[in-house]
Amino acid sequence: QLEEKVDLSAEVDAKIPQAESLVESGQLKEALALLAALEKRCRVGNDTPSLVRVCEASLQFCKDAGDHEALLATLQSLATRRSQKSAAVKALVHKAMPWCVVDNHVPIPVSSDEEKENRDKLIIVLRDISDGKIFLEAERARFTRALATIKEETGDFSGAADVLQEVHVETYGSLSKKEKIEFILEQMRLTLGKKDFVRAHIVSGKVSRKHLQEESMEEYKVVFFTLMGEYHRHEKDSFELAKDYHAIYSTPSVLKEEAKWKDALQSAVLFLSLSPYNMDQQDMLQRINADSNLEKLPACQYVRYPLFVTFVCSSLTIAIISRATIRLLLKKEIIQYPLPHQTELESWPAFSEGGLADHWKETIHRRIIQHNIRVVSGYYKRIHGERLAELLGLSRTRLEQEISSMVSDGSVYAKMDRPKDIIRFSSPKTPESILSEWAADIDKLLGLVETTTHLIHKENMTQ
């Protein structure tokens, strides 16, 4: 059964001017009492348009009178009335919103402590009113972000992050895709700022990489992968760092600015060279090697020696990110350590950012050692440990340590015979593989016999 609706628009038209006259004469309480009685009649009579007008007028009169306490009390009272209409609550929030925030989530600038206190209280009240109301979920997200901004401005970084984490914006249907991603990026920034890296990683999973590839999302894509770079730098994950910088580099807006794409590409190659050997790393090396922009970086000239390949560059500070570096990593040749430009490399900002210079220095040494061991394993079935240590410029202890590590992670097969000082890189064959090879050889032999017989018969027939 439909509720009965009463039209009170005429009475509202008459009483709002009366209340306005009372406010002008300094009788705000009497004006609010007059409108409170009218609000109840409109609410009970289901006259929603008139109810909205009365609620908005009540707030406006409090604002015009400059009575902030009355404004907050009236706002809370009207929004929490029994059986209050959702349209009225929504109108109250939208009416008061411009008085504390601008651009949806930015707190309005203030010039005194009193104004700041009034603004902050209003934001908190509006945020509480919108809590749990689906029709105000977008407004709650915006007020929460404004509150987080206020806390951050006062130096409460942890409090700002905690407040923002209360809103699961990814479940809100009333916010646009852009606004959701912007909100999540802000959550990531604050959680990283308070050094909560586990939470930051969880929040990052809420961002769809597919959406970031859209043309209108380029700005957010750069911000997202910059934040992910901060997380992966803390985790000391060089391959993920390379992927982050490459994602930034591949953004069309970045490619339009030479300084930005060069910096991103250089960083991508730097961390790719620090990454452990695997198929993904090799695939990315090949893709970057085929990139035409790599030719625009300062060219390097190869200088070949019998046992290693090195290169010199006109700008040693960025030599590591030239195409010669990529090709050097792809070649099956021993690399000498330290590199000719080791000092310049260690002074590069991306190398030392985050206080990880010592870690990356040790990492690049290990990657070169591992590369050299893989090269040797491809050419030798067995070799004396002393000779291998001499080739690689390592102590016997360090050589055994690195080979053991590579055997453990499955990147190379090796057996060490310490009494005889022999390292074997060829894996023993199983009986099944030996039998398969023998059968293949027999098939090849029989094929050759058959072909020879056919040629003999052919020759006899032509005579």
Account of the 3D structure:
This protein is mostly helical and 463 residues long. Helices cover 65% and strands 5% of the residues. A hairpin with a 4-residue loop joins strand 3 and strand 4 (309-313). The chain starts with 8 loop residues before the first helix and ends with a helix. The relative contact order is 0.04.
Task: Give the SSE string.
Answer: HHHHHEEHHHHHHHHHHHEEHHHHEHHEEH
Q: Strand order, main sheet: write it out.
A: 5-7-6
Query: In percent, how much strand structure appears in the residues?
Result: under 5%
The largest sheet, given as strand count, sense and whether it forms a barrel, is: 3 strands, antiparallel
Termini separation (Å)? 112 Å
Number of helices: 23
Parts with pLDDT < 50 across at least 5 consecutive residues:
299-322
Class based on secondary structure composition and strand pairing? mainly alpha
* Rounded mean pLDDT score: 87
What is the strand tally?
7
Overall spatial form: elongated
Helix fraction, binned, reads 55-70%
Rg on CA atoms, Å: 36 Å
